Amino acid sequence: MPIVVASVPAGHVYVRHVASSEGTADVVRLPDPPPQDGSAVEPWWPPRMLDPAWVEAQSATFDVMHIHFGFDARSPEDLSRLTEALRRHGRPLVMTVHDLRNPHHAEAGLHDAQLDVLVPAAAQLITLTSGAAAQIRSRWGREAHVLPHPHVVGPAWMTRPRPPRREFVIGLHAKSLRASIDPVPVVDALVRAVTHLPDARLVVDAHTDIMTSGSPRFASDVADHLRGLQSRGALDLHVHDYYSDDELWAYLHSLDLSVLPYRFGTHSGWLEACYDLGTTVLVPDCGFYPEQRPCLVYPLGPDGSPDVSGVVAAVRQAYAERPAWRADPAQRAAERRWLAAEHTRIYRAALEAA
Questions:
Q1: What are the residues whose beta carbons fall under 8 Å from the beta carbon of 120, sequence distance 6 or more?
Q2: pLDDT at position 57
Q3: What dotted CATH number matches 3-150+333-353?
Q4: How far apart are CA 233 and CA 230, in angstroms?
């Protein structure tokens, strides 16, 4: 009999890619229930599986609950009720700790309180890097299985040749300014870095919501600053709505260097996508990004601001050395098969302990 997993969520690319691409009879993941309010940006948001009432009603339909993302939609008290419902019905919890600091929260307190409920309650823990596992051990006295992030990009893009060009294109995407992103000081450092680099070009992207007056998320200071730099010819500014997957892969594929303007963080799917596509990534020295895949690093100050000289040095290193770090598609496929087998083993261990 296959192990039936209530995966929270099931539709996220990470979760899809820790399952074997060939399919397996060992594990079946339930589809994401549609959100009750019908107003989701993601088809699984907010996750109904995290409602204790859903567990009470559906406990006979699954063997294990596996939480990845989405628990920031629930209070610590809600999560306590969830774990109690799982225990009452004999359904073990497996948790992958992707984020030790929530990139959408300006302060750490709520996420810490949520983790303080879920991490001790989990029968089995997974994380992506040994550094994150060490923090989990230090904070909660728990051991986590360290399993790498699977590929993000599909085979067609992963095998696409890099476009030949004379230019060295540096890209920074401000997205929709989630709490962990502070683009302006990093952009200013990049403007300084590209000075006197022949054929180097800086491209900055931002979503329409933060750049449009009247939008609820309009960030006038960021919009004015970026448009001022554009008017002086210091950068190319692209304002657009959210990219589809193919649009995002095409964007990343067009860059020689993608710069992450994060003030804090833990792991990055963006980094993994760039590795799949052969785009070098420059990351801040917070979190555990260099443990994921090869990348360049710039230092942050105590206040989370970038060290300008460190950014400049890293950009010029990327320009001079042109690192060729790219995933091997066959290795990524083998890694995915191994990840699927490891998850099956972990689910079995959780069930045996229960």
A1: 140, 142
A2: 97
A3: 3.40.50.2000
A4: 5
